[in-house]
Amino acid sequence: MTFSFKGRDIHYEVHGEGEPLLLLNGILMSTASWAPFIPHFTRAGTRLVLVDLMDQGKSGAFEEGYDIAGQAGMVAALLDHLGISRAGVMGTSYGGAVALNLAIQRPDLAGRLMLAATRAYTDPLFRDMCESWLHACSSPEALYTATMPLFYGASFQERSQDWLNSRRALLERTAFSSPDFVARFKRLVKSIMDLDLRPQLEGITAPTLVLAPEEDLVMMPWEQRRIAQNIPGAYLVTLHQTGHVMFLEKPDLFIPLVMGWFRQAGTIALP
After folding, report:
1. Each residue of 166-188: pLDDT tens digit?
2. From the centroid of its chain, how far is CA 103?
3. Whole-model pTM?
4. Pick among 3.40.50.920, 3.40.50.720, 3.90.1180.10, 3.40.50.1820: CATH of 2-121+196-263
């Protein structure tokens, strides 16, 4: 399905019935990335909403550029289009930054938040990392080596070399060799390079759970601590032996965390 935003088609999917749960993708993801999770997330009376952000997947190309706040504005427009007045929002990586912006811009829309391996501030280290990704767009091999090894935790890489080698061959042959994909990727990277939501975190009112993989070399565990410390009442869960793409590395942990936070809220009386 699509809806129009600024004259471009935005691709989205809705699965299941019940309370709405919106998943927001990381920078190299799309709605297709969530396919294995759909049966699990719709099993418990959930209306699952997936969306390809601007310049992602099947959504249109936005050559004029945008920022994270603009992505959040698009997501708010999608929820309004669907008639959803309030939703649980889970954002990972880039999508987590979009989720933070959504909670700041439209607190009426964000019920509960889960922020998985994300960022509220592009510090000098991450900015340099983004610059290195832009320079690496000169070849598929360079783009892979500059990005993907950082996304997987050391523990996962130790036990999954065959899978990673096949993944590398696929990406270098397909997406990373596509001029259109690379142009979109560059705009997505540029859109996060000036992010700084630090002064606004204390104004977020949605109940928030922050997931911090200890082997995350992209968003960094200390950035997760900063987010959790500055959002009133936020919880922080550290995931051991897990890298940036936690949902892929440990789906058996990720799925119950998501469903517990969004679907079992209030079942345990805390002191």
Report:
1. 999 999 999 999 999 999 999 99
2. 14
3. 0.96
4. 3.40.50.1820
